[in-house]
Design a protein that fits this description.
about 375 residues; alpha+beta; Heat Shock Protein 90; about 15% strand
Length: about 375
């Protein structure tokens, strides 16, 4: 943005200091002048002889002008030095902001000194830079992973079409089935990416939602999948209300329960869904049996395209999920000002605890977004 050049803040402060010093000097000298003139007679007998009042006024006037000039110069010089010292932290913050505007996010101000306004501003700016750097790095990883994931089904489709083109006798029904599978995978991945972006922007209407009803609906919907894998679903708890998007919270619970079913024991496993109110918070807990999880693996599960077990790929690219289940869950929880805690079970499996506020929070930019806890 183009702006008209103007005096710097340091110059304005120096002139203000000098102006205040000059005003104080004029007030002080004026007061002394009035007192002396009221106390002195027309003619005063001094040790060196007689002094006429008019001569005394001229002497005092000359001295007053000289003092005021010296005070003005001293006020400008002293004000310039003091303003420079006072604005030095602001200069460091400005330099840091300029570097950030040119794409450098790794530096920090780390301002020393007491807990004053400049120190608090610098600390907030450092915290903001750390959050922006973290978000940019996460977006770069996400973009790279998304490009890789989207490229895979497209490459498989091209390979299948090349094979069919080179071999006209190839079974077209089998080709269509494989293309349908790969296309469904690409569509699911694209929809998951769009949902992840929508939840991150917080642009959705909020309404009162009962998580216990959503949990029952999800359990009923996923019951055939659980029965197919011989998994027992158990829904417990009391009515628990929160404020948010019904569609997003439904997707959150669906992803949690579906992950709990898929990443479970080969047979005879269990999934427990529990809801309960906790004062100003609403609790949702999903726990499942399954293989043991390494503690250092759990914090990475909410990263996009991360899975608790090694990825399995076939020629038809038939895999369970697109690697965005818990990433979407984490994004939805953050959009609702909640917290997510992942706890590996000692005997295997994972416990997921979600805490959401019963009433919507006013979004505070100075408050960092909640992160998943392991």
């Amino acid at each position: 943005m183009d702006r008209r050049p103007g005096p710097s803040a340091r110059l304005r402060l120096a002139v203000s200091y000098a102006g205040f010093a000059l005003f104080a000097g004029v007030l002080l000298l004026g007061t002394v002048w009035v007192i002396l003139l009221q106390a002195l007679p027309e003619v005063a007998v001094m040790p060196g002889g007689m002094l006429v009042r008019s001569a005394l006024e001229r002497t005092l006037g000359t001295a007053a002008v000289a003092v005021l000039v010296l005070m003005t110069v001293f006020g400008l010089v002293g004000g310039w030095v003091l303003a420079g010292r006072m604005l030095a932290p602001l200069t460091r913050i400005t330099d840091a902001a300029r570097l950030a505007a040119h794409g450098s996010l790794s530096h920090r101000i780390r301002l020393d000194g007491g807990d004053d306004e400049f120190r608090r501003l610098a600390d907030v700016f450092d915290s903001m830079l750390a959050q922006i750097e973290s978000h940019v790095a996460a977006q770069q990883r996400f973009a790279a992973n998304a490009s890789h994931e989207l490229r895979t089904p497209l490459a498989i489709s091209r390979t299948l079409l090349d094979v069919a083109h080179s071999n006209p006798a190839h079974d077209r029904a089998d080709l269509l089935d494989r293309l349908r599978t790969v296309n469904t995978r690409a569509i699911d991945l694209t929809e998951a990416l769009l949902l992840l972006s929508r939840a991150g922007h917080r642009t959705f209407p909020r309404e009162t939602v009962d998580l216990s009803l959503i949990a029952e609906e999800v359990a009923e919907t996923l019951l055939p999948l659980a029965e197919q894998r011989r998994i027992t679903l158990d829904v417990t708890g009391d009515p628990t209300r929160t404020a948010g998007s019904t569609a997003l919270l439904l997707r959150m619970v669906t992803n949690l329960v579906q992950n709990a079913i898929v990443h479970n024991l080969p047979a005879d496993g269990t999934v427990t869904i529990h809801t309960e109110p906790r004062g100003a918070l609403t609790l949702l807990h999903v726990e499942n049996t399954g293989p043991p999880l390494a503690p250092d693996l759990v914090p990475t599960l909410t990263e996009p395209f991360q899975r608790g077990t090694q990825r399995i790929r076939t020629a038809e690219y038939q895999v369970a999920g697109v690697g965005l289940g818990l990433a979407i869950v984490h994004s939805i929880i953050r959009a609702h000002d909640g917290t997510l805690t992942l706890t590996p079970q000692p005997t295997g499996g994972l416990g997921v605890t979600v805490l959401l506020p019963t009433t919507p929070h006013r979004h505070d930019l100075s408050r960092p977004p909640p992160r998943p806890q392991a």
